[in-house]
Every structure is written in C-alpha cells, then in structure tokens.
Specification:
32% helix, alpha/beta, 2 domains, D-Maltodextrin-Binding Protein, domain 2
C-alpha cells in the first residue's frame, strides 16, 4: 500500500505543515472540483495541505485510490457518487474477484445530486410495461452513465446507449431518435433553466433504487417549466479515502472535524454547493468508524 508519513503532533498546527497529497475531484469547471478547492481552503489555516486535482470523474477517482494510476500516486482522497462505488466494486469483483468496499471506505457525505430523466413532451412511457429505451447519458464511465446503468439493472430495462453530440440531444428526443436523456446534477441546474420543449419523468418506486438513492421532490419552485411535481432519485456524493490503516485515524479525525467545524461558514459563503448537506447520512456499505463517531457526537 502507498504510504504517507503522519506526524503524531498533527494538531500542533503552528509548528508543522502536513502534506496529505491530493484529492481527486472531476472536471475543473464542475461542482466536485469546487468542493475540493473549498476543502483545501478550510484545511489550509490548520497547516494541512490537500490539493484538488481534476479527473474524469467518480469511476476514475476510485481507480486512482485503488492504485491504478501512477500519475496520481499521492492521491489518497476523492469525491465520488455513491453508486459509482458499487459500480466499481462490481467491475472488480467480476474481473478479479476483489471486494473493494473495505479498501476504500466512505468518510463524509457531501450532499446529493438529482437524476434528471428528460424525454419529449409527447412521450408518455409506461415503465412497468415497456423495457427498451434509446438513452443518452454522456461519457460512458461518467457519473450520469453509471446511474443510468444502475437504473437499467434495477428495473430490468434494456438501454440502447446512443453516442451523439450533446447539443443534438434535445432535437433527437423530439424526433424520436432518443427516448431518454439521463443527467446527474444538483437541482436546480442553471443549464436546465429553460427546457420547455422537454419534460422530466419519474421512475416507479423500486426497492433496489431506494437502497442506493434518496429522494427529492422537484416542482415549479425549482424549475418553473415543469408541469407537475416530479419525484427524483438523488445520488449521494461522498468523500472517500484509501487510508484505511489505523495509523491514519488521526488524519481522518482531523479532516472530518475541520469540515464540520466550518460547515456553517461554507454554507454561508457557497450556499449553492454547501447549502443543503445532510452530514448525518451514513448509509454506505463501508463507512469510516472514526468519522461515524465524530458525526454522532456533532449532531
């Protein structure tokens, strides 16, 4: 396992500067990178260095923490979607028999993103009966496509994934070349402020989905173009780490305490990103015991 040296006097901030390497995020113009920068900023006054690095998203982030990218050998933290952890574990288990849950535990919940499912206003799909759909979800191992694949398996759908330019998606939904456009992003999303030619659709209640995701009701207060309230499944996003050895408990303890101590400051300064986070959400296959103890004492 890759190691970092931990100074036992971690809390003597005025004496030592601790370099914890980097935190994997996503594209440098996205929310994950923004959160990585914010975390780096709030750790800095405590003499803890954690540099955000841009990546292709959740799947790559988990792969990096799993040690598959020499370029990011000093990356020990990442922000990912909850379902991406399950997806990555599935790919590893089927290819090599490895269980990744114990290797990369969750550390702290960082809010949710909504699974937007768009279709043409003329479509009225019966998801209970119809099972085959032409779908666009962007990059194949991006967060939206990971959620799309999870939906496909949970409902026993057959998705035909269409590779097309993003700017043509709306037109193809309207002319029938696409049935569904699946996009994972926090609602309200600025880029979806005016989607009057399309509509959002809800999925039927599903036990497998309810185990993985949470719910959010989307209505005209969020998007003024929706005709009715929509129940959206929401993907929890989470800070994870590859530092599982007990000697690193002091690191996890410090990071979680500092983020929680500064949560109101973050909420006031960056409400769109940090405004509605349920830090008490710990429904993950493997959640850091150190973090859970801090959360239970804080709330």
């Amino acid at each position: 396992m890759r190691k970092i040296f931990i100074i036992s006097m971690l809390f003597t901030y005025n004496v030592f500067a601790i370099n914890l390497g980097s935190i994997a995020t996503a594209s440098n113009n996205g929310v994950y990178y923004k959160m990585g920068k914010d975390i780096s900023s709030i750790l800095s006054p405590y003499k803890i260095q954690l540099k955000p690095v841009s990546t292709d998203g959740s799947f790559e982030n988990i792969s990096i923490l799993d040690g598959h990218d020499v370029k990011h050998k000093n990356t020990y933290f990442a922000i990912v979607q909850k379902d991406a952890i399950s997806y990555y574990n599935y790919t590893q288990r089927t290819s090599s028999g490895k269980n990744m849950y114990n290797k990369i535990p969750a550390v702290l919940s960082l809010g949710t993103e909504q699974i937007h499912i768009f279709t043409s206003k003329n479509n009225n799909f019966n998801f209970e009966n119809r099972k085959t759909y032409k779908v666009y979800c962007g990059q194949s191992e991006g967060g939206s496509c990971i959620s799309a694949e999870y939906i496909e398996k949970a409902y026993n759908f057959k998705f035909i994934y269409v590779n097309t330019k993003k700017e043509t998606v709306e037109q193809k939904l309207q002319n029938g070349m696409l049935d569904l456009y699946i996009s994972v992003i926090s609602a309200p999303a600025k880029k979806y402020e005016n989607m009057k030619n399309l509509k959002l659709v809800s999925l039927p209640t599903n036990l497998i989905m309810d185990t993985m995701y949470t719910h959010k009701n989307v209505n005209t207060s969020i998007y003024d173009w929706v005709d009715e309230s929509i129940d959206m499944y929401s993907v929890p996003r989470v800070l994870i780490t590859s530092l599982t050895d007990k000697q690193y408990d002091v690191v996890i303890d410090s990071i979680v305490k500092i983020i929680l101590k500064n949560r109101n400051k973050l909420k006031i300064q960056y409400p769109d990103v940090w405004g509605n986070i349920n830090y008490e959400y710990v429904s993950y296959k493997n959640f850091s015991k150190v973090s859970k103890e801090i959360i239970n004492k804080t709330f």
